[in-house]
Write a structure and sequence with these properties.
Helix content is 57%, strand content 9%. The chain is built from nine helices and four strands. Strands 1-2-3-4 form a four-stranded antiparallel beta sheet, sandwiched between helices. α7 (192-215) crosses α8 (220-237). It is globular.
Amino acid sequence: MSEPKKLRLGGMALRNGLLVHGPEHWAAAVRRSDGTIGVASGAKPRLRGAVTDVPGVRGVVRLAEAMAVIPMVKRGLPEARLPWQDATVGGAVAVAAVGGAALRRRLKGPGGEAAITLLSVLPSLVALRGGDLAAYHGVEHKAIGAYEQDADDARDATKEHDRCGSHLMAPLIAANLAGTTLLRRVMARPSPAANAAVQLASVGAAVEVFAWSERNSDSALARLLRKPGHEIQRLVGTREPTPEQLAVGQAALDEILRVEGAHSQSA
């Protein structure tokens, strides 16, 4: 009998655990304050129809579906702490918003847009530098990587992964910079709706680049496109997790495989 096909899994690191996305379900596990592991799972909301196959739109749809899972996780597992549930991160968000508005008034042209785009990354960097978020990001990659590679021990898997969202960063910044520059050539004072449309279009373009890189993973261009993401993961995005943190990741992995009707390949 042939081996069952591997599930395509994604995830999101939490401050005290891991959220894993399967094709039809989500599963999360966290380390509670008393040291025990809490686990929850459920069906994912899915948008059906032709729009989910339209290039540039399908990526935005899938990201929206992933965000819609977050309230479900909080209801099923109230102890889960989201990446932005931190006062320092909240302060960084405020600084980025105020700083971006100030830069937009003072700086014009591509240089100003580039500075605003880079400033928008600040909250993510602050979130990863504090607490256990970077370690649980490493847990995400190791748990999923071990499953995909049939590894017996997640500790042997790398803490970097080719499908990490960090690989969206470079194409997203490039698309956003190109889009906002073009918009300001067309409109002297772009409306909030126009700016929002550029943001959505940038996300859609970045996801298409991400998907192309995965389909053509052996090409030199795909390796080049993934290089910034791997460096982000290596330098700031991930940290080697402890055995206790890996145990939380294994609990989330086991739960997603259970609810998806698959079987764990790891010990």
